[in-house]
From TrEMBL:
SUPFAM superfamilies registered for this protein in UniProt: Acyl-CoA N-acyltransferases (Nat)
InterPro entries, per database record: Acyl_CoA_acyltransferase, Bact_Acetyltransf, GNAT_dom
Upper lineage: Bacteria, Pseudomonadati, Pseudomonadota, Alphaproteobacteria, Sphingomonadales
Protein's recorded name: Acetyltransferase
Keywords linked to the UniProt accession: Acyltransferase, Transferase
Signal sequence coordinates: none
Segments forming domain N-acetyltransferase: 6-154
Any Pfam family the entry gives: Acetyltransf_1
GO MF annotation: an example: acyltransferase activity, transferring groups other than amino-acyl groups
Keyword match Acyltransferase: yes
UniProt organism field: Erythrobacter litoralis
Domain of life: Bacteria
Length: 154
């Protein structure tokens, strides 16, 4: 099993920016533009968002963020494993870290929005395996044939 290191990240390193660019490009190729809720780096630097990079030595394996919504609620944003690390536990390790971080911060609820189509099935299975269940929309998210909201009560 790979030993990953997870740390807060300032979104300035080229490998992180490249992975986020790939993430946004794929989201736009898989979903209508109005259903792409992935954030660009400048919005992931907001004060209410904590961004993390997961590394395997000096190689970037995954990224993801925790956004605090208020009233004990949080949202997972920009979860993405690097192509070479898909299916190798990087996403799982980062998701477990983000859930633990949410609990440490005293959050009682985590939500996320993801796609509902075939390219998103691995992510859906990962979230379900950690107790996330389909939910009604939250914030500005409206579930439909492309978009799925999920929640986890902590």
């Amino acid at each position: 099993m790979t030993c990953f290191a997870i740390a807060r990240d300032d979104l300035t390193s080229p490998d992180v920016l490249d992975l986020l660019r790939l993430h946004l490009d794929e989201m736009h190729s898989w979903s209508p533009a109005c259903k792409v809720h992935a954030l660009p780096p400048e919005k992931l630097r907001a004060p209410d968002v904590t961004f993390y990079a997961l590394r395997d030595g000096d190689r970037l394996a995954a990224v993801g963020a925790l956004k605090v919504l208020g009233e004990g609620r949080g949202e997972l944003k920009s979860m993405r494993a690097a192509p070479d690390y898909r299916g190798r536990g990087a996403g799982r390790a980062l998701l477990e870290h983000l859930i633990a971080e949410a609990r440490t911060r005293g959050l009682i609820w985590l939500g996320l929005e993801t796609g509902r189509t075939v390219p998103f099935l691995p992510a859906l299975r990962l979230y379900e395996s950690h107790g996330f269940a389909e939910s009604t929309g939250f914030g500005d998210y409206v579930p439909d044939e492309f978009s799925l909201c999920m929640e986890l009560h902590l």
